[in-house]
Amino acid sequence: MADDVLFEFLHMEMVSHIYKDQASKGEMDKDRATCVSTLEGMGFRVGQGLIERFTKDSPSFKDDLDVMKFICKDFWINVFRKQIDNLRTNHQGTYVLQDNKFALLTQFSNGKQYLEEAPKYLAYSCGLVRGALSNLGMDCVVTAEVSLMPSCKFQVVIQKI
Amino acid sequence: MADDVLFEFLHMEMVSHIYKDQASKGEMDKDRATCVSTLEGMGFRVGQGLIERFTKDSPSFKDDLDVMKFICKDFWINVFRKQIDNLRTNHQGTYVLQDNKFALLTQFSNGKQYLEEAPKYLAYSCGLVRGALSNLGMDCVVTAEVSLMPSCKFQVVIQKI
């Protein structure tokens, strides 16, 4: 419990710092993209580190779906305190992970007034997932979408080489 | 365990982001001070938030020493997974908290080669303590000192009004 808060508070501070820092430099539109990519990059490196710890004692994975199941269950529980509620795939390299109560969005009220702000608070987590998958040999693009707080969908698209 | 890592990794990324960001702006000396103060400020706000949660069910404190004991025990365990090893005071508003194995320094090797880097990794924690104390009505200056990794001394000086 204390730990959740420790991470959540630090995450909020970091988002707000990065956005404030960019705002002070002017150029609003370019800024938004830069902030998202800065946060995503931080998440990516942390995700790489985390997955190394989490998979230390795990057997190897038999396929991509097996990896995704690990992300939805073990990884998500370790990081966000709950499992992903729903995993869907088109069996062609696209996965949709739905979390009905995403930890980093629970501080916001359920209404629509904060929907526009949501992407700021998802960039770091998209990076976490991309970093974790990258270390498991899966090169992906990860995006997130919120239609009703605090539920959230992460889309993972595996990049064919 | 997973949570420790989550917080520690995010903290490392944040320190490195803030230093890199400043370095790109030039002016090295002014920069160091700015980075320390940015990190300290983030810690301060998080410390304020954390202490509110941690003291929700606590009885009120009878004096400053009582508050400091709470910081050394409950607060430190919640945040850094262990108690402060030694608390000293001159009974005139100065307290020295010694942690023989400070969580955010354990990733570094014990030698002297990283001593110079240590202050970067302590600024956020100094802010945490200052924020927590501030919310408990104690206006303080908090500094940290490392003479041998990973042990660390935090000095708290209460400001008389």
TrEMBL record, chains A, B:
CDD domains in the cross-refs: TRAPPC6A_Trs33
Classification via Gene3D superfamilies: Trafficking protein particle complex subunit 3 (3.30.1380.20)
Signal peptide: none
Coiled coil: none
InterPro entries reported for this sequence: NO_sig/Golgi_transp_ligand-bd, TRAPP_component, TRAPPC6/Trs33
GO terms, biological process: endoplasmic reticulum to Golgi vesicle-mediated transport; nervous system development
Source taxon at top rank: Eukaryota
GO CC, alphabetical: cis-Golgi network; endoplasmic reticulum; trans-Golgi network; TRAPP complex
Keywords: Endoplasmic reticulum, Golgi apparatus, Neurogenesis
Subcellular location: Endoplasmic reticulum; Golgi apparatus, cis-Golgi network
Subcellular location, principal: endoplasmic reticulum
UniProt function note: Component of a transport protein particle (TRAPP) complex that may function in specific stages of inter-organelle traffic. Specifically involved in the early development of neural circuitry, likely by controlling the frequency and amplitude of intracellular calcium transients implicated in the regulation of neuron differentiation and survival.
Family listed: Belongs to the TRAPP small subunits family. BET3 subfamily.
Name of protein: Trafficking protein particle complex subunit 6B
Record organism: Salvelinus namaycush
